[in-house]
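Notes from the 1:1 (GR / supervisor)

We went over the backlog. Supervisor wanted to see one worked example end to end before approving the batch request, so GR pasted a single chain during the call. The sequence is below; no edits were made to it. Supervisor asked that the structure be written out right there so they could see what the output format looks like.
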Amino acid sequence: MQTVALLTGRGNNTLKDKNIREVCGRPLLAYPAEAARQSNLIDDFFVSSDDERILSIAQDFGFKRIKRPASLGRSDSKHVDVIRHALGVIKEKGVEPDILVVLLANTVCIKTEWIDECLRDIFKRPTISAVVPVVLDVDHHPYRAKKNDDNGFLEPFFDFGDREISSNREEIGDCFFLCHNFWVLNVKKSVYANDGQFPWKFMGSRVKPYELDWSIDVHTKEDLIRSENWVKANL
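Structure output shown during the call:
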């Protein structure tokens, strides 16, 4: 199976230049780039961005440039459109990925062994549409979510009808949240399928979790500090 890594990051962010800010003396995007480059299971490497600096730094790590149009570099651009655009360019270059490892440029929480373990899952079970890292977080279970009613008071986010919902976290079941560090996609069963789960429909309908203890993607200066602490403790 042809396996391709796609590093994605745009230049227009709330935290200016976050994808190339230094974490422990290295640009942020160096962490996902190097983790992928150290894998023996990935055949080719590409980077998609609207920002020349991101493209240039990623190229230094051996990633082939894909300059995305400005319409895919906006804050409301959808990741699925970025992925599909990149796949189109990759195919024009004569590469036909079966498996796509999507790397997000704004995280340090990624290890080669994690990527490889997710890849091996799909290699062994090709009916899987995607393998994605998740973290268990019952404290933020959706059953505990609230919203404002028309009078400004809190009400349950969901209509539970006559169903009794316990306030004890031990009784409401596991709740996993998707990490935004990398996703391993079985291309034909995910990106080009029409049966995916919302809101990340491009992951398809058979998404296997890969559980992590913790993950962070950078959006604030505080996230950069937490990222430095994680690097010092884990890499």
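Supervisor's comment: Helices lie at 30-37, 52-60, 79-92, 112-124, 221-234.
Batch request approved.
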